[in-house]
Structures are given as structure tokens and as C-alpha cells.
Amino acid sequence: MSDIPNDQPLSDAAAGFAKEQLKSFIERIERLEEEKKTISDDIKDVFAEAKGTGFDVKALREILKIRKQDADQRAEHEAIVDLYLQALGMIGN
């Protein structure tokens, strides 16, 4: 955690600095966690609005997942799914 050996006590100034730095990290993380919660709530609201206008939320989530993939990754995944569906006789050759 620290480069200071355990048998050497911190000076008052160093301890004060470490305490303030720790407090700063904690407060920044707390602010970011609150922002993350706010954004998460906003996303839920958008999904609820989409559902209210008749869109299928599961389909929207699937589209979002697909859009995160790069084109090659997506094409490979689609080819594998098609191969499996053909093997199961669910789609024609």
C-alpha cells in the first residue's frame, strides 16, 4: 500500500496529506457512484417510455448489445448462430 516501511512512523505533515488524499478519493468515488445511479435511473426511464409507446424492451436491449460489438465480431456471432440453427433444422440451408 505504501513505500514507507511499517517501522517508520509518518510525519504529521505526511499523515495529514495522506488523510486528505484518502478523503478526496473517497469523496470523488461517492460523487461518481451517485452520478452512476442517476444515469442508471435515467436509462430505466427511457426503457419504460419506450415500452409505453409499444416497443419491446428485450429487443431494444438485444440491439444495444449488438451495437456494442464491432462488425467482425457481430458477423462471426451471426454466422455461428445461423450454423447452429441450420444444424437444428430451424432454418433452411
UniProtKB/TrEMBL annotation:
InterPro entries: GapR-like, GapR-like_DNA-bd. Signal peptide: none annotated. Residues 18-89 form the GapR-like DNA-binding domain. One of its GO terms (molecular function) is DNA binding. Residues 15-49 form a coiled coil. Keywords: Coiled coil. It holds the Pfam family GapR_DNA-bd. It comes from the Bacteria. Belongs to the UPF0335 family. HAMAP family: UPF0335 (MF_00797). This is UPF0335 protein Snov_3111. It comes from Ancylobacter novellus (strain ATCC 8093 / DSM 506 / JCM 20403 / CCM 1077 / IAM 12100 / NBRC 12443 / NCIMB 10456). The lineage of its organism: Bacteria, Pseudomonadati, Pseudomonadota, Alphaproteobacteria, Hyphomicrobiales.
